[in-house]
Amino acid sequence: MGDLRTCGAGTAERLVVIGHRGKGMNALASPDRRLKEVKENSLRSFNEAARFAIDFVEFDVQVTKDDCPIIFHDNLILTEEQGNLSEKHVTDLCLGEFLSYGPQRDPAKVGKPLLRKTKDGRILTWDVEADDPFCTLQDAFQGVDSHLGFNIELKFDDHVIYKEEQLARALRVVLRVVFEFAKERPIVFSSFQPDAARLMRGLQNVYPVFFLTNGGTEIYRDARRNSLDEAVKLCMASGLQGIVSEVRAFFRNPAAAARIKESNLALLTYGQLNNVPKAVYMQQLMGVNGVIVDLVKEITEALGPHPMQLK
Q: Full-prediction pTM beyond 0.90?
């Protein structure tokens, strides 16, 4: 298994492959049925991904109102109640209400119908070929192959300005579960929220913390989020161990890879281009340590047992 805990400058580790939200994200508006094959961020998706030659699964963790770390990507959870659309912030829900959406583990129960808003604002029924109930972080530790690493994205709302104590409280809740259940499982934390990444590095020194960045492909009020150079500065100032960049930002600024390596930081990428085998191969030649992919089967089969010898 490739190890994100040791990669950085001067290493020759093979390319680390990470399943995005398990066996891939759900893109409900996409014509590609592979992106609607299995429910993202579910035990089923994680375990199906584990059947392939991957090292980690990536998933999004948020904390409920009653302090339970759950695995869910979106800020809002949608359903239909008495013919009307209901939208709630997932962090405003208690665990029981969160778990009441979608398919239920108890066959005697009927969950609330689950909807999802696309980037262009359409509301679609969250239909996939292989559905699965929502899960908590503890469920993932107890229900997923223990040899599979977890890339835990610490998820916060881009539109909210958080106080440090709010961030630290959520991070401590996540850490309690990790320290109790992780055992020998490889763990890497990551976050788009610069202060959350910095605080997580200060709260523990057992697991590496990476900073997630769009690298300038989108612009935010917080300048630390707007370029790879800013990401390097944040990592160096906060003692973070790596950067996870949108793959287009990396290809637009390949010289940044050298600066990241010179700073002894690991470099991962994410994005749609990582579902193209040739793009993944090029990144390894350019020094990228790992890729987060949706098409787990196709990418692992293309890379084969020796990633530098692309089929």
A: yes
